Amino acid sequence: MDFANLFRYDYFNAKGFVDLKSFFYYNGKMNIIISFILAVLPVGILLRFFYKKDSLKPEPIGLIFKVFLWGLFGVFPTIFIELFIRGFKGFFSFSVIFFVGFEAFIVAGLVEEFVKLFIVKMTIYKDKNFDEVMDGIIYTITASLGFACLENILYVMGTSVTVAIIRGFTAVPMHAIMSGIMGFYIGKAKFSSSVQEKSLIRKGLMIAVILHGTYDFLLMILKYFPQLLYINLTLVVLMIIIAGKHLLNLIKRSKNIDFREGRV
Questions:
Q1: Within a 13 Å sphere around the CA of 27, how many CA atoms are in the beta-carbon half?
Q2: DSSP code of 90?
Q3: Lower CB density within 10 Å: C or N end of the chain?
Q4: Would you say residue 121 has pLDDT above 60?
Q5: Alpha carbon distances (Å) from 42 to 93, 149, 230
Q6: pLDDT tens digit string along 150-180?
Q7: Cα separations (Å) of 117 from 62, 106, 123?
């Protein structure tokens, strides 16, 4: 989660970006209010967008809210787990690549995606309303956006409006996209044999961790190689677009599977 510090206000302002911070200040209070709104707004937009995708058999709002809250509260154990695992990063100090890779793929990617998977498995996976492959995508995205909501508030409230806007177009969508792709495999696993079930869940988790780790790595490495700023940001944008299109294709595919197998 430390990758967002690379996007702190003073770094971008020094690079010549627009000074949005002073524009939104009003006696020190308006910035806090607007920053909070901007932190939550992208989460709400994405949650509504993906919920509308489940048009054939929408999930109960109460369950969506429940899973969202569990995702939000999932941030707290994640922080403690990451702090514990981060204590082993000294073993990788022999190489910047391995050091950043450990932080990106293990501390952030593996821990955060596993927590989201755990939340879905413990709160909704066995519920009678989880009756479509599409539900795997919807509920996993919901847990992810709950997680992203609190994470975004914690980062934005301590930084600036600039950070809120940048994260609103990068970190928050990527949380939904990465977990949504994992959710497709969770959904397929629900209606598979016990052997296939475990294999599909592992596959979904592995894909989410790779995507999450790659995204974080491209940003974290900038601390050591700032000259890669524009190249890496271009790769991040391309990654969001490509992964996002892939998720939309999986949504269409899940609907086809559910229709073909008589679940809708």
A1: 0
A2: G
A3: C
A4: yes
A5: 36, 9, 24
A6: 998 888 876 767 778 888 999 999 999 999 9
A7: 20, 15, 10
Number of Cβ atoms within 10 Å of the Cβ of 185: 27
Domain ranges, ordered by start, for the chain: 2-260
CA distance 160 to 96: 29
| CA 8 to chain CA mean position, Å | 19
Strand, helix or coil for residue 216: helix
Give this prediction's pTM: 0.86
One-letter amino acid identity for 179?
A: S
Q: Which amino acid would we find at residue 172?
A: V
Is residue 8 over pLDDT 60? no
59, pLDDT greater than 60: yes
Which tokens go with 161? 């409006």
Dist CA 252 CA 42 (whole Å): 23
Task: Enumerate long-range contacts of 79-86, CB under 8 Å, 24 or more apart.
Answer: 79/1, 81/111, 81/115, 82/1, 82/107, 82/108, 82/111, 85/111
**DSSP 8-state secondary structure symbol assigned to residue 142:** H
> Degrees (nearest 5) of the Cα angle 33, 35, 38?
110
Question: One-letter amino acid identity for 112?
Answer: E
